[in-house]
Amino acid sequence: MEIIENYKITANTMALTEEYHQNYNSIIYDRNGVYGTKQTVRSLLDKACMDRISTYDGRITAVRKLFPYRKKTPLVICLHERISAFPTTSPDAYGCSWIFPQHIHMGVMKDGKPVAFFKNGTELPLTCSLHVFNRQRERTANCLNYFQSNLESIALPLT
User: What biological processes does GO assign it (predicted)?
Assistant: First the structure.
C-alpha cells in the first residue's frame, strides 16, 4: 500500500476506512489503488466539502432537515459530480467506514461476513450488517435524487 500525504476525494474514491497505524490514519480505496494517509477520514470528508464550497457539518445538517436520517446520515459531497458517501456505523465510532455508493457492484455475505464488492473487483469487509449496508445505500440514493431533482427544478425556466 502506497502512503500519500494529501489525498483529495474525487469521483474515483470508492471508500474510506479509519485505521490507526504508525504510518497512516486512514485507508483510501480508490479506483486507481489502495492508499494510506495520515489524514483522518473526517478531515478528508470535510476537505472534500470545503473544496466544493460547503462543510461536512453543513451538508449533514441539510440532509437531516429534509430527511428523518438522524443517525448514520448520508453525505452528499457534490451533486454535479454525483459524489456521495454513507457511514457504515456511527461516524463518531472508531473504525467507521464511509462507502461511495456509485462504485458498488453489490454487498454479499462471504464466509459468514458482510462484504462490499466494487465494480473494479475490489472487496471491502464491512463493519455493519448487510441489512444496514443496503439501507444506507437506499438512503444515499434518496438524498442524491431529491437534491438533484430540486436543483433541476430551480434551473428550469418558468413558462
Answer: establishment of competence for transformation
**pLDDT by residue (tens digit) across 116-128?**
999 999 999 998 9
| Coil, helix or strand at residue 151 | helix
What's the total number of domains in the chain? Answer: 1
Range of the domain at 31: 2-155
Q: Is 81 helix (H, G, I), strand (E, B) or coil?
A: coil
pTM across the whole model: 0.90
- Asked whether the beta carbons of 130 and 109 are under 8 A apart, the reply is yes
Nearest Cα to Cα of residue 3 among 66, 12, 21, 91: 21
Question: In this predicted model, what pLDDT tens digit does every residue of 129-142 receive, in sequence order?
Answer: 999 999 999 999 99
